[in-house]
Write a structure and sequence with these properties.
Number of strands: 18
Structural class: alpha+beta
Shape: globular
Radius of gyration: 25 Å
Distance between the termini: 29 Å
Mean pLDDT: 83
Low-confidence stretches: 404-426, 435-454, 458-484
Largest sheet: 14 strands, mixed
Number of helices: 17
Length: 484
């Protein structure tokens, strides 16, 4: 936005920010919020404290104190933001998005900074990492909250933490645990999700999937090729087990002797007849600058191995292979009901572009990664205010674009703007049921190449922004399904 557009939006911005007034104890602090948000929405090249202050003709130290020492409640700010999303954007089509992003930093004073995988740089570099929860309905999307990832090197050095004003109760937590806390907080503030979607960095954690199941939350999770289970559920017995045939024995569930071992999903794709021999079905995922993005898909039911090595609750298993790059293979599992259409699962599985776009907008438009302080409180407040600015930006964009609701309870075609999925192959796309051994589908096998493993994090490569192109649909083969 340029200065003229910002001035035209001033009444709307003032009305929007009044909704956060209870987070501040004084009119002075509320004024600083307006100054900071206005600076983030401006066309400044750098949106750290000093450029924003100078552009607003206020002393930089004033905004530094606003972030680092003035009395106001940044946690209430986040709760209020989530309450506004629940009030204004609640929808049965809502998808929650879990991901992380990194911000390169120099030196060793920024809270949480260390050499680690930096998706923004595409390599191991000095950076901080934050875990985020996003929200998407049709074409609307925003970020609901985030937490700074505190590496063990920081958590084990409490003197360094105190120097950065990190409270003693803030300790190392795995990223999946942080994501779960973000999810619980949003739900407590009234934000509901039809599905959660996340990549294999979180999908590879059985504890995370289990916690979501206990919360009765549906998910579509990308998982690594080593995610293990059975296509044919093995029998389980609770007969007494006596080591060496002697002793009292222990009564505990276990696999019947001679049962097949659980195998990774890549193994099933290449060697288990029930999946290997299943035909690929092409689906158009979305339209890009280069034409339709088409993936070929296989869909079966998988019984995952639980933490005791026993069969767990059956899941959907979706294998998706990029038609233009057969080495790119993705594996997804979902705890959705067994009769959930494949089209619905694909809609959710490939919806992570929403949170990637949120990261891009926050960094390129709002200065999310421009924080230059050394205070943990200042960093949290900078990120909370950026989320407030981003929600305003998202609402303005939605108002200018106009409402485009889906009609089938899930995001529609073309990023949520239409009537959902349309299958035009004439072929049954339902998953094969979990069944006994020896009943493979009688279809020709398909060879598959392995996808190279990648570090977990967003922004692995700087790709050009994807835009919707409706004039390229004629290139789509007839034997395809329509997903996004």
């Amino acid at each position: 936005m340029d200065a003229t557009q910002i001035r035209q939006l001033q009444p709307k911005l003032r009305k929007y920010l009044k909704q956060f007034r209870d987070c501040f104890s004084s009119r002075k602090s509320r004024g600083h919020l307006h100054t900071f948000v206005q600076g983030q929405l401006s066309n400044l090249d750098r949106k750290s404290v000093e450029p924003i202050a100078l552009a607003a003709d206020v002393p930089p130290r004033t905004l530094q104190q606003f972030l680092n020492s003035l009395a106001w409640d940044q946690e209430q700010l986040v709760d209020t933001l989530q309450g506004l999303v629940a009030r204004d954007h609640l929808s049965p089509r809502a998808i929650g998005l879990i991901d992380e992003t990194s911000c390169p930093k120099k030196g060793d004073q920024t809270p949480g900074v260390q050499r680690q995988w930096c998706g923004a740089a595409g390599k191991t570099d000095n950076c901080v990492v934050t875990v985020h929860l996003g929200y998407a309905v049709d074409e609307f999307h925003c970020l609901l909250g985030n937490e700074l990832y505190l590496p063990k090197s920081w958590a084990d050095d409490r003197a360094r933490c105190r120097q950065a004003h990190i409270p003693d109760e803030i300790d190392y937590r795995p990223k999946w645990r942080m994501a779960l806390e973000l999810f619980d907080r949003a739900r407590a503030n009234g934000v509901l999700f039809r599905y959660l979607v996340f990549d294999e960095g979180y999908g590879s954690k059985p504890e995370f999937l289990r916690e979501l199941q206990t919360r009765e939350q549906r998910y579509v999770a990308e998982v690594p090729r080593t995610f293990s289970g059975w296509l044919d559920a093995p029998p389980v017995t609770e007969r007494l087990f006596r080591r060496g045939g002697r002793g009292r024995g222990r009564a505990r569930p276990r696999l019947v002797a001679g049962s097949a071992a659980a195998q990774g999903v890549e193994y099933h794709l290449n060697w288990t007849p029930a999946l290997k021999a299943r035909s690929w079905i092409k689906w158009r995922i979305k339209d890009t600058q280069r034409g339709p993005l088409v993936w070929q898909v296989k869909h079966v039911r998988l019984v995952p191995k639980d933490e005791r090595g026993l069969p767990g609750q059956p899941l959907h298993l979706i294998v998706a292979c990029n038609v233009l790059d057969p080495t790119e293979v993705k594996y997804f599992v979902s705890n959705a009901p067994a009769d959930t259409p494949l089209s619905e699962l694909l809609l959710v599985a490939f919806s992570r572009w929403h949170i990637e776009r949120c990261f891009e907008d926050q960094k390129t438009e709002l200065g999310f990664d421009h924080f230059e302080g050394r205070s943990y409180l200042g960093l949290k407040r900078h990120q909370a205010v950026t989320a407030v600015s981003h929600l305003f930006l998202a609402q303005v964009q939605q108002a200018l674009r106009g409402e485009k609701p889906g009609t089938d309870g899930v995001p529609g075609a073309h990023r949520g703007s239409g009537c959902g999925a349309l299958l035009v192959t004439g072929q049954d796309s339902r998953p094969s049921p979990v069944r006994g051994r020896g009943h493979a589908d009688r279809l020709l096998p398909t060879t598959q190449r392995r996808r190279p493993s990648q570090p977990h994090q967003d922004n692995r490569a700087k790709n050009p922004r994807v835009r919707h192109q409706t004039n390229r649909l004629a290139a789509l083969p007839v034997e395809s399904g329509l997903a996004l």
